[in-house]
Amino acid sequence: MVSTSTQIAGFAFDNCLMNAAGVACMTKEELAEVKDSAAGTFVTKTATLEFRQGNPEPRYQDVPLGSINSMGLPNNGLDYYLDYLLELQESEPNRTFFLSLVGMSPEETHTILKKVQASDFKGITELNLSCPNVPGKPQIAYDFETTEKILSEVFAYFTKPLGIKLPPYFDIVHFDQAAAIFNKYPLKFVNCVNSIGNGLYIEDESVVIRPKNGFGGIGGQYIKPTALANVHAFYQRLKPEIQIIGTGGVLTGRDAFEHILCGASMVQVGTTLHKEGVAAFERITTELKAIMEEKGYENLEDFRGKLKYIEE
Ligand code: RRO
């Protein structure tokens, strides 16, 4: 019997596939649909302290090789997601879910994390350090000084399981510098990667999304090689207590297999989930299990991180 079960931060999940934050997770209804699908768990849309309308539409476009978005952090506010997660803790006490969040400023991030710390929330928190789409707000994790300051302040009071969502990095020195910072803190995971920020997609003579004159985060097939490189670079550099969640370009079981081979303990599906709906989880799981069966792997530990190099 082949199993795709996994663990993150000591919590067990019966499948390693889940949604990527931003897709199918804005409302309780969408979250319930992911929860009741073949996915192992869900993560909420990144929550800010208060409700946000986000950027003007059109702000998300599926395109043949992926997607482009400039949503601008629309969400229902922390309490909406936290209340739902607290309800689920009662009705589904044997499952663990992820809460994604970030403030519009470091101060707001601390206010939010202190509320989560003070609540009865027993799940996993993902701090989004990589939103590319709020005009005037740079992607936090491209600024190593600010990132380190936030993490050092957060771990002075936050004791619940916490991981971070990262933007893609493109330079070996940046992998080294980022990993050296993350290794100083009791992070449970890093999630690689958010969308590749500020791409431009053109149809005929026009952009396809309204905000920022068409600039937006790129997801889907375009980004798999970058995502795999980030997963593996951090798998090689981070202390073993910090697990990796792999996100980016997962259309098939083969894509999920490659993320795990690069070191991922959980694999998230964004653009494909948007295109195909929650049926994608069952299809990708079936495809992943078929690959594992053919190779004689019974569980993810049999091949996680075991990417082969060409010697000499
Ligand atoms: O809401 C968004 O525009 C958005 C966010 Br917060 C993010 O982290 N990644 C992304 O592609 N879009």
From TrEMBL:
GO terms for biological process: 'de novo' pyrimidine nucleobase biosynthetic process; 'de novo' UMP biosynthetic process. Its cofactor is FMN. The keyword Repeat does not apply. Pathway: Pyrimidine metabolism; UMP biosynthesis via de novo pathway. The keyword Cytoplasm applies. It catalyses: (S)-dihydroorotate + fumarate = orotate + succinate; (S)-dihydroorotate + A = orotate + AH2. Homodimer. PANTHER family: DIHYDROOROTATE DEHYDROGENASE (FUMARATE), DIHYDROOROTATE DEHYDROGENASE (QUINONE), MITOCHONDRIAL-RELATED. Residues 5-292 form the Dihydroorotate dehydrogenase catalytic domain. One of its GO terms (cellular component) is cytoplasm. Belongs to the dihydroorotate dehydrogenase family. Type 1 subfamily. Its EC number is 1.3.-.-. Keywords: Cytoplasm, Flavoprotein, FMN, Oxidoreductase, Pyrimidine biosynthesis. FMN binds at residues 45-46, 128, 165, 193, 220, 248-249, 270-271. Gene3D superfamilies: Aldolase class I (3.20.20.70). One of its GO terms (molecular function) is dihydroorotate dehydrogenase (fumarate) activity. The active site is at residue 131. This is Dihydroorotate dehydrogenase. It comes from Streptococcus sanguinis SK49.
